[in-house]
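Researcher: I'd like a structural prediction for the single chain below. Treat it as a standalone chain; there are no partners to consider.
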Amino acid sequence: MSNVSFQFMSFFFKFRDFFSSPMKILEQIGIQQGWYVLDYGCGPGSYSIRAAQLVGPAGKVYAVDIHTLAISEVQKKASIRGYDNVHTILTDCNTKLPDASIDVALLFYVLHDFKNPDSIITELDRVLKPMGILSVIDHKFDNDKVVSTINHAVRGLKLKETGVRDGKRKKSLLIFSKE
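Model: Treating it as a single chain, here is the predicted structure.
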C-alpha cells in the first residue's frame, strides 16, 4: 500500500469514526480494565487506541495489521498518548501470541478483504481465552454472511448478540462467544 493510499484510507476512517464512535462500539462489547484485546486488521488504530483507554495500564492491546504503514501509525499514536499497553504485530495471519491469552478479538471492517478467512479466524479462535469474545463488524457482508464465514472456519464460536445498526449501511456489531 502506498503512502498516499494509506493517507486516504486514514482520512476516510476519521470521517467514518465521526459518525460511528469507536468508543461507543467498544463500550457495547463490555471491555474491562485489565483485559487483553487483539485488534486484527487495526489500520491506523481507531479502535486500538480507544481500547487502550478502556483496558488501562493493567491491560494490553495488540494492534495487528499486514501493512507497515498501519503499524507505524498505531505506534506513533500510542507513543503520543503515552500508552505503553499498546503492542503492534506485523503479520498476515500468525500473531505468535500464546494460546488462550486474549479476552476480546476485534475484527472490524476487514473480514471481506481476507483471501483465506478460515486461517485468520482459526488463529483468532486459538488465542481467545475460554469464554473469550470475537467481535465483528463488516460493511460489505451482511450478518448471515459473517456468521457463515465464522462458522465455516471454527465451530467453537457462537453468535451471542448483535448491536449497533447504522441506517443505510446496515452494518452490525456481531458478538461471538467462545464456548
